[in-house]
Amino acid sequence: MNHNEIKKLLLDDSEIKSEYDELSPIYELKKEIIRLRIEKGLSQKDLAALMGTKQSAISRLENGSYNPSVEFLNRIAHTLGKKLQISFK
């Protein structure tokens, strides 16, 4: 069984699907930060240095063990040449 088959099987469970959907915005945000960092040719260490923080803070954010403040996300956006935009739908 591959990853997609396991994911589909798990998401057939409504409780798991609900949790997955609730966490989706967080994971999408983290994937976008990783994509932008890589697009700029920056390592975690490089991004951290530009932000004046530690590489471990970037690592924790990207691997999901840290939920950042809006201020921290804004600093990341600014460092990556982007503007942080938050909306409710």
What's the arrangement of secondary structure elements?
Blueprint: H1 3-11, H2 14-39, H3 44-51, H4 55-63, H5 70-79
Helix pairs in contact: 3-4
Return the CATH topology of the domain at 27-79. Answer: 434 Repressor (Amino-terminal Domain)
**CATH second-level architecture of the domain at 27-79:** Orthogonal Bundle
Mean pLDDT: 92
Principal-axes shape call:
elongated
How would you sum up the major sheet?
none
End-to-end Cα distance: 35 Å
CATH superfamily of the domain at 27-79: lambda repressor-like DNA-binding domains
Strand tally? 0
Helical fraction equals: 55-70%
- Ranges where pLDDT stays below 50 over 5 or more residues in a row are none
Which CATH class of the domain at 27-79 applies here? Mainly Alpha
Subunit arrangement of the protein: single chain
**For the CA atoms, what is the radius of gyration?**
15 Å
Pattern of helices and strands:
HHHHH
Query: Count of helices?
Result: 5
Tell me the β content. Answer: under 5%
Class from helix and strand fractions: mainly alpha
